[in-house]
Amino acid sequence: MKKGMNIKGLLLSGMMMLGMTAFAQDGASSKENYDQGFRLGFAVNAGAVTGDYFNFALGGDVRLQYDLSQRTSLTLTTGYTHMFGEEDYIKDLGFIPVKAGFKAFIWEDRFYVLGEAGAGFAVTNDYDETTFLWAPGIGYANDVIDLSLRYEGMNDFQANQIALRLAYGFKL
């Protein structure tokens, strides 16, 4: 238990330090006439599960993003993730994540760090638990494509994952 808490603390500290560098950099931007506003993205996710009971994860999500500035955004993400259990050992787990987060662009207004936290609601195979989720990540985004890599930790299910997310997004 202490080992997991140390890893969480180290990852969260690293994400905070990277996020602070975004604010420490010069505020000048190469883009002119930046408009604040909402973006919507639709994504597919695939991941390797780090626990002992599940083999891999596959899912999709919808992310609403509000751009506070050209370098910072608030996010709200939901969708569905299905974790495939080991054959004859444990049943598959499907859950609906609901996460809020903060995204900070740290390099050339394209590369970012993201931290999200929320809940995962189990919806398959008689799983009836809700777990706390936390997900630090890094990514690249342009006007329509968002590609990211994240670690998603859970308090329950012993099913943390490292996932790749490919999204199509647009301004609302």
Largest sheet: 8 strands, antiparallel, barrel
Helical residue percent band: 10-25%
In N-to-C order, the SSE pattern is HEEEEEEEE
Alpha-beta content class = mainly beta
- Mean pLDDT equals 85
Q: Going across the major beta sheet, what is the strand order?
A: 1-2-3-4-5-6-7-8
Walk me through what this model shows.
This protein has about 170 residues and is mostly beta strands. Helix content is about 15%, strand content about 60%. It is built from one helix and eight strands, in the order H-E-E-E-E-E-E-E-E. Strand 1 (about 35-50) and strand 2 (about 55-65) form a beta hairpin. Mean pLDDT is about 85; it is low at about 1-5 and about 20-30.
List the helices and strands and how they pair.
Blueprint: H1 2-24, E1 37-49, E2 54-67, E3 72-85, E4 93-107, E5 111-122, E6 130-141, E7 145-154, E8 161-171
Antiparallel strand pairs: 1-2, 1-8, 2-3, 3-4, 4-5, 5-6, 6-7, 7-8
